[in-house]
Amino acid sequence: MKAIKHTGIVIFLIGLAIFTGTIFTGSFSLTSDELNTFINQKKYKSEIIKDELKKATVTSEDLNIFEFSSRVRAAYKASNDHYDAQIAKYNLEKNWDKKGEQYQYKIYGKPHTVSFELAKIAGKGYIKDNAGLVWWLTFGLGIIGALLFILPNYKLLGNAGIKNNGIYLESSTNRGFLAWLVLIYLVSFYLVLYFMPDYVVNWTFIFDPISKSLNGGPASQWFVYGFLYCALMLVMATRMYIKYRHNKYQILRTTSVLFFQIVFAFLIPEIMTSLNMPGYDFKNAFPLDYDFFFEWNLDSLKESGAIGLFILVWGIILTLVIVPVMVYFFGKRWYCSWVCGCGGLAETLGDPYRQHSNKSMKAWKLERWIIHFVLLFSLAMTAVTLYCYFTGTQSFLGINSQWIKDTYSFLIGAWFAGVIGTGFYPIFGNRVWCRFGCPLAAYLGLVQRFKSRFRITTNGGQCISCGNCSTYCEQGIDVRAYAQKGENIVRSSCVGCGICSAVCPRGVLKLENGPEEGRINPTDVLLGNDVDLMKLVNDK
Amino acid sequence: MEHIVIIGNGISGVTAARHIRKNSDKQITIVSAETDYFFSRTALMYVYMGHMKFEHTQPYESWFWKKNKIELKKGFVKTVDSKNKTLHFANGDTLQYDKLIIATGSKPNKFGWPGQELNGVMGMYHKQDLDNLEKYAPDNKACKRAVIVGGGLIGIELVEMLHSRNIPVTFLVREQSFWNGVLPKGESEMINREIKKNHIDLRLGVNLKEIKSDKNGNVKSIVIAETGEEIECNVVGLTAGVSPNVDFLKNSDLEIGSGVKVNRFLETNLKDIYAIGDCAEQHEVIGSRRSIEAVWYTGRMMGETLAQTICGNRIEYKPGHWFNSAKFIDIEYQTYGWVWAQTKENEARFYWEHKDGNKCIHLNYDKNTREFIGINNFGIRMRHDFFDRVLNEKRSVDYVLEHLADANFDPEFYTLHEAEIAAKFNKENNTNIQLKKKSWARIFSRA
Question: Which ipTM did the prediction report?
Answer without folding.
Answer: 0.95
